[in-house]
């Protein structure tokens, strides 16, 4: 409730009768030329639907009348190719909503993104969790993403089946954790249950899906946690898949009864099979997945989220981080307008809460009370403590992902884990050397 | 008069200034008042419009939000039993719609939160009651963190974990959302906003407002509410809210005037309070008013200045007009007086000669037998007639000058002829008064020039006439003519004519107005002198018309000198000058000035002149020249020894007859008869002596032509003249005068008879034709043209001389244009007629 200048006051009185825009009782303080910017969003919860984005943009444009925002949503199947095509035509969007693996490790590393270091100077930015921060900048410390929300990928088990198969005993119900041994014991029990119940829809306890990269964070987390292996070094400069721990884990999985390597499905297919009772566990799970499947009523059993099993009690879950990045289109006005929108959505607590709520993920900075009384969120809140290293920003990440599922397919096809892992290393080295 | 006008002007300016001040002050006052009213009206319009829009927008937003809560219920219909899926579904959809809290309302008014901190409506009972009665509702509320919320509830019977059914589904938004949606916290907003409930409690307020309620704020902060107390204002506001009416008022806070507008918001018991500070508007309008006042004052000053300037010009013009009028009146009075005097003078001057004519005629008639007496009377009648004629001529000339019809007719004329003609007229008058009239010609050739001979003659005649007139008997008059180089170039000559007399002179005062018409010095001496007072005015006008100057120097009782200076174009001489270069000439005259002037003339012609002041000196000079006699000896006719021409004979003898001896005389009548030629005189040259005269005379003598001494009387015997004159008396006079000169006269009564007689005569029969102009049957012009058109040898050559009373220059010109050779003005002056005829007969 501020006052404006006398001139504006007089003008307001004069133009009032002729003004027909809404609301008529505010004044565009900036005047000048309207800047048009585009916002492209991947399927990040409700941000994948324009109807959920529109109210926030409408509110923004009421305050910033000289900035006009157009929105386009992308899916994960065709999104990357759409973006690449736009980049090649010089028609890249101004703002894009996705994770660091694309914004930092891919487009940022290729010099397509504008650094948004100044956005990180805001007070609210200082409250962002450290394990999120490190994923948002490159090796030189340039930020290419301003994070909005995050989630912790975990696995889920069919509690009803586990109880029926007498596998529930291997689960730490309070902590939602288990050991590697408990895990394999549970797999064995499930396998036994399957054999005892041939009419059951159960196909196997676990499916290591490897038809593509969809949901690969689950298989990576499973392999790395089993015997304390890692995917990259801590500096995110080299891939460390080819290790004794990982080879042991892969061999153990391959050798275990009840665990199949399926090169016909990806993560989404695995979730479907899990919801149908065909799999006892899902490696591709998170809070949003449960909400989605619950709302879809795709399952009729109780789902119990779990950490990935580990042999040393150190759980390292894969995190999902989503935020806004800005393509460097060489237009200062558009760049500034894009930053203005990001500030508007992400800095103010009230608006930020709405933005995160629409995504239905967790905030990247403390938002007390936001999920108070929300049973589902509270249930998954426990996994935040197990959030591991966000190594998806390691150079050559896209190729490494491809090499990963191809490696799993090789193992599933009978190739020894050691050889397959070596092939993975060769592929990633080749890619990184190009 | 002047003071009155000035006073009127000052008074007018003061009145206008005062009027402007009053008018503009009133206008300023009215404008200020009207400006304040306009602000109020604008504020009301603006605020009511804004309030209406804000209320509508608020209603629309709340309605939208309520509909979203309803849609939430539709998307997730209440199942029979509580399920986790139902809750997750509700939460997900509510978050996607931007709701910060979601809860199910129990029948006891408490809430089962689905997400978000626990909430509490401001009026739980009313909220519950509304939901219980199946109504959608909106309410203010807070959460456990104290955040202000807007709660929106719809009736909904969802199963709860406790097993009971809810009475409603309640979603919440932060009040900041309402602010943002309504743009209430926009930095660009012109207006202060509050949303309050009926108790005055703030639903939405500015962060820096710490008052418990709006009403408390009114009591604490509002300095004045349109002249009423805070309590009274609150009562009015509450009454308006209770009646669901809009409310407007005006108050002051922190010394600033503000406009207030209150309107109810839909779907709630909330009221939107809009406050418009007038400060900026007041300042803007006041600035506008100040500008207007300054502009008005400046305009006023400009208008007054313009009026002042106009008045000043008007005053100056009026003063000038008054002065002009006064001058005109003075002139008119002077002119009237002058004309009265003129008429009086005319009466006197005309009557005097008329009396003389009449009286003398009567005397002559009574003494017809006394020839001497008759002759005397006729002389006086003649004098009176001439004077009367002069008067008439002057009056007519002045009339033409005043009507702007006087024109110059430039022609090839001879200054010599002009001077001699004038002298012929004036000399007798001067002689009659025993005055000595000397003429000195200096330096120049005084040959032909381009000028108006008539008007030049008139100038000289007036100057010499006045000199004669105002110089006592026995006085002296000197006419000097000098020819100098002209600043206009070699083709021009500056002719300086000076007339000096030893007359009565004039006063200093009169000298300043001597050239005014009808001006005559009002003294007894002048009164006795005949004259119209027009002569000098006419002279001045003619000189001005010739682009010349006329100056006068005069000393009372000593004399006057008038000098006319004219730059006249030179004309080619009729005959080439005789080469006198190196000729030795003796000049003998008792008048030293004359000798001086003649010697300068001779020197200009290249002669070697020797002066002699008397006869003895002349003879001595001739003797001394011995064997180298003078080429010529010029002797004044009045020198000693000239009575018996002994001096001439001595000189001829001493020179051996090798010198040309010429006599110089101002008179044409010397009376030497045949003795002159016998004594050896080669001829007579009349004074003044012009270079052209000397050139002509010496040229003729050198050529062997015999010079005959003129006796002075014209002898026209054997000459035959055809006289055309319709007036019997005039014809008779002319016949008589011409006959006396030995001319045989044939008369014709009109132009046609004249032409017929000429046609009927043998070729060369008539030596000249004297033609009157105004004649019946055929005018003189037509008769002349008829004669000139005749196919006979003498038709083109015979001299036709106009003799008419139409004597203006244009009349003369017209005569010449139609083929006449000369013009003689009536009445007939036989002297003039004789001279003119003589010139033509010589040819």
Features:
heterodimer, A: 434 residues, alpha/beta, D-Maltodextrin-Binding Protein, domain 2, 2 domains, 6-stranded mixed beta sheet, 3-stranded antiparallel beta sheet, 16 helices, 41% helix, 13% strand, disordered N terminus, B: 843 residues, 7-stranded mixed beta sheet, 6-stranded antiparallel beta sheet, 23 helices, 28 strands, 48% helix, rod-shaped
Brief write-up:
The complex is a heterodimer of chains A (434) and B (843). Chain A is α/β, with parallel strands linked by helices and 434 residues long.
Model description:
The complex is a heterodimer of chains A (434) and B (843). By secondary structure, chain A is an alpha/beta fold. Chain A has two domains: 2-152 and 320-386, D-Maltodextrin-Binding Protein, domain 2 (3-Layer(aba) Sandwich); 154-316 and 396-433, D-Maltodextrin-Binding Protein, domain 2 (3-Layer(aba) Sandwich). Chain A has 16 helices and eleven strands. Chain A has helices at residues 6-15, 50-63, 79-88, 100-108, 130-133, 159-164, 180-196, 216-226, 244-255, 267-275, 287-296, 332-346, 349-359, 375-381, 397-412, 417-433; strands at 35-41, 67-73, 95-98, 146-152, 154-158, 206-209, 259-262, 281-285, 303-306, 319-326, 362-363. In chain A, the strands form three sheets. Chain A has a six-stranded mixed β-sheet, with helices on both faces. A three-stranded antiparallel β-sheet of chain A has the order 8-5-9. By secondary structure, chain B is of the alpha/beta class. In chain B, the strands form five sheets. In chain B, strands 12, 13, 14, 15, 16, 17 and 18 form a seven-stranded mixed β-sheet that branches. Chain B has a six-stranded antiparallel β-sheet with strand order 2-1-6-5-4-3. In chain B, a hairpin with a 4-residue loop joins strand 7 and strand 8 (202-204). In chain B, helix 7 (279-366) runs antiparallel to helix 8, helix 8 packs across helix 13 and helix 15 runs parallel beside helix 16. Chain B is rod-shaped. Classes of the chains: A alpha/beta (434), B alpha/beta (843). Chains A and B meet through helix 1, helix 2, helix 11, helix 13 and helix 14 of A and helix 1, helix 2, strand 2, helix 4 and helix 7 of B.
